[in-house]
Amino acid sequence: MKSRFKPDRGLNRRMLATTFLLGLLYVVFIGVLIALIKSAVLAIVIAGGLLFAQYWFSDRIALFAMHGRVVTPEEAPELHGVIDRLCALADMPKPAVAIADVDLPNAFATGRSPKKAVVCVTTGIMRRLDANELEGVLAHELSHVAHRDVAVMTIASFLGVLAGLITRITLWSGFGRSRDQNAAIVVLTIVGVSAVVYALSFLLTRALSRYRELAADRAAAILTGHPSALASALTKVSGEIARIPSRDLRQAEAFNAFFFAPAIAQGFSISSLFATHPPLERRLDQLAGIARELGQEG
């Protein structure tokens, strides 16, 4: 069943292109490994098991890492009420609803399919946003579920995990400590190829991550009809995150690609090429444009 979230052909094309390019890169990488070492098969099997676990249990893994728990309508009636209304409006299955008891104001969606999805909000974001702002954030997260980009991002991260695992196995193995010159050359080749594969997969997934955030903003603003509320939530959450100590933010940075707004430690800046999210200004400009299209300027 298709939801009423506005389809995003640009996002679909990018997800397809990213999956194809990463798949091609994976085939080449595996071919090189098999040609160089027999033990590559073991590493591939291990990495495949990790991918399966990450994909199949992604919701449980994410909730455990963020100290989140699924809550019932009796435990969080207002939160469930908002998600009930949005799911009815979007004509999509209702995901599980979870709350993470952390002060970091954020939210994320996870799960391998719309029927197995979880939308989680932190207690920090619930305390800081009003009803309309929280509705915009939840619509943003539900659009990730409807567009199925959460599952694609989970799969896309596999190649980088594999490249890192291959490098570690090679360096830690007895083969990697061999004094034989040919063996040393093979080790350096594997490490070099793994580094290139990791870098390319990293750039491809980050580019997809940035676009999917813009797509989620667009879909949420159009579904709710209140782009200004989502813009207000973005501004408020980003400002609050900037006030949180760097030490606390670093603990959550591993989840940046899935957060509503990135948890970036104070004083830390990176090129937009490596960012998980587009700049705040670009997101706000897009929402302002949607407001004008809806006749809400001023």
Automatic annotation (TrEMBL):
It is found in: Cell membrane. It is a multi-pass membrane protein. GO terms for molecular function: metalloendopeptidase activity; zinc ion binding. InterPro entries: HtpX_protease (IPR050083), Pept_M48_protease_HtpX (IPR022919), Peptidase_M48 (IPR001915). The active site is at E141. The keyword Chaperone does not apply. Binds 1 zinc ion per subunit. GO terms for cellular component: plasma membrane. Signal peptide: none annotated. Keywords: Cell membrane, Hydrolase, Membrane, Metal-binding, Metalloprotease, Protease, Transmembrane, Transmembrane helix, Zinc. The chain crosses the membrane at residues 15-34, 40-57, 150-171, 183-204. It holds the Pfam family Peptidase_M48. Its main location: membrane. Zn(2+) binds at H140, H144, E213. It comes from the Bacteria. GO terms for biological process: proteolysis. The keyword Protease applies. Its cofactor is Zn(2+). Its EC number is 3.4.24.-. Residues 74-289 form the Peptidase M48 domain. Belongs to the peptidase M48B family. This is Protease HtpX homolog. The gene is htpX.
